[in-house]
Amino acid sequence: EASSDGGAAEKKSDKSEKSTEKKAKKKFKIGFHEREDQFFEDSVAEIYIWQYNPSSWRTTFIGFGLLSVVIAFTMYPLWPDWSRVGAYYVSIGLASLLGLLLLAEVFRVIIFSGIWLSTWGRVHFMILPNLYEDVGFWESFKPTYTLEYKGDDDDEDDDD
């Protein structure tokens, strides 16, 4: 009989050990909290998780492509003559396009200012008003011009 009581006591002690093991384990709630100030508090109640988002193959390919272009342009003195001449013509063409855009802007401002000053601000005439707007290429040339007449507000008040 003593052996049967001793076996019951052993079972109770096994159960109490398991319950103390369960009580000893702390449960952590894992939640993703985005913070702007990358702050880490070193404490027992907090855990740290490293989230790694690998870059895609496309980003790696574009990076190597840009690096290759930079290296190719730094090796300009080693280019053959025909490619140097081509690069010269391309740079002249792009510089001419930039000069044309600047000339168009100066022309627009001179025309607008001349008409605006001569009419005391009543007439607003703008050539290519969408030239620098965020629209498609062809839409930036439509309309060709805008003409707005802004009459005096004083005339309307005098009628009262």
Written overview of the protein:
The chain has 160 residues and is mostly helical. The protein has helices spanning 2-24, 57-74, 81-118, 153-158, and strands at residues 123-127, 145-149. The protein contains four helices and two strands. It has a two-stranded antiparallel sheet with strand order 1-2. The longest helix has 38 residues, at 81-118. The protein is elongated, with a radius of gyration of 38 Å. The protein starts with a helix and ends with a helix. The model has no long low-confidence stretch (mean pLDDT 79).
Shape: elongated
- The number of distinct β-strands equals 2
Q: Helix-strand pattern, N to C?
A: HHHEEH
Tally of individual helices: 4
C-alpha-based Rg, rounded: 38 Å
What is the end-to-end distance? 118 Å
Q: What profile does the largest beta sheet have?
A: 2 strands, antiparallel
* Spatial order of the strands forming the largest sheet: 1-2
Quaternary structure type: single chain
Task: Tell me what portion of residues adopts beta-strand conformation.
Answer: 5-15%
Rounded mean pLDDT score? 79
Low-confidence stretches: none
Q: Tell me the helix content.
A: 40-55%
Question: Secondary structure elements and their pairing?
Answer:
Layout: H1 2-24, H2 57-74, H3 81-118, E1 123-127, E2 145-149, H4 153-158
Index terms:
two-stranded antiparallel ribbon; mainly alpha; elongated; 160 residues
